[in-house]
Amino acid sequence: MAVKSDANDEVAVAQSFAQAVDKFGKVDCLVANTGGLLERVKCVDMTLDFWNKAMSLNSTSVFLSCREALRHMLPRGSGNIVIMSSLAGHDGGGPGASHYSAAKGAMLTYTRALAKEVGPHGVRVNAIAPGLIATRFHDDFNTPAGRAARVERTPMRREGQPEDVANAALYLTSPGASFITGEVIEVNGGMGLY
């Protein structure tokens, strides 16, 4: 079931979860995948309004989704949350991406804090930090030459595919990961090694 919603509107988020519960009876997993770069802007040229929009898109939306998911998971004593971060959350990202990398770095810390808070109640929280994945994100914000240079610096010598990230999320929400919480899976072909 697909539901169109504004992930920065707490009423809309609550309504989306209510629709899911009406259809499926419960919430087992949340993959908090809202986010984006918006545009590349140097810090010195960035307005406060732009900064706040970037934080809202990449952090507030995750908080609202996690909060609503937990309202359904905690009473049942089980659930899985996967928060989408980024390699930029570790390495600062590229030029003009300080707002994006700061928000994604915050999601790494939020993952660990939330895992401590809700782990005793049967809910696991982990994160995925993708690198160069062949998606519209990189079509919009990287040049072909820049992408090729990143592939050359990646030990696996290729771009990741969306399925690589999806498979990591599937693993983290599976029974096979039942003793994993507060962790970050790097899906970047080894680029984070440098």
Structure description:
The N and C termini lie far apart (40 Å). Helices cover 48% and strands 11% of the residues. The protein has helices spanning 10-24, 48-73, 88-91, 98-118, 136-141, 144-153, 162-172; strands at 29-32, 79-84, 123-130, 184-187. The mean pLDDT is 94. It is of the alpha/beta class and 194 residues long. It has one domain: NAD(P)-binding Rossmann-like Domain (Rossmann fold, 3-Layer(aba) Sandwich).
Properties at a glance:
about 190 residues, Rossmann fold, four-stranded parallel sheet, globular
Q: How many structural domains does the protein architecture include?
A: 1
**Could you give the order of strands across the largest sheet?**
1-2-3-4
Secondary structure: helix percent: 40-55%
Strand content: 5-15%
Number of strands: 4
Could you list the spans in which at least 5 consecutive residues all have pLDDT below 50? none
Distance between the termini: 40 Å
Count of helices? Answer: 7
Bulk shape: globular
Sheet having the most strands: 4 strands, parallel
**CATH class, anyone?**
Alpha Beta
CATH topology: Rossmann fold
How big is the Rg? 17 Å
Give the full name of the CATH homologous superfamily: NAD(P)-binding Rossmann-like Domain
* Alpha-beta content class: alpha/beta
Indicate the mean pLDDT: 94
CATH architecture: 3-Layer(aba) Sandwich
Order of helices and strands: HEHEHHEHHHE
Helices and strands in order:
Layout (H helix, E strand, L loop, with lengths): L9 H15 L4 E4 L15 H26 L5 E6 L3 H4 L6 H21 L4 E8 L5 H6 L2 H10 L8 H11 L11 E4 L7
Parallel strand pairs: 1-2, 2-3, 3-4
Helix pairs in contact: 1-2, 2-4
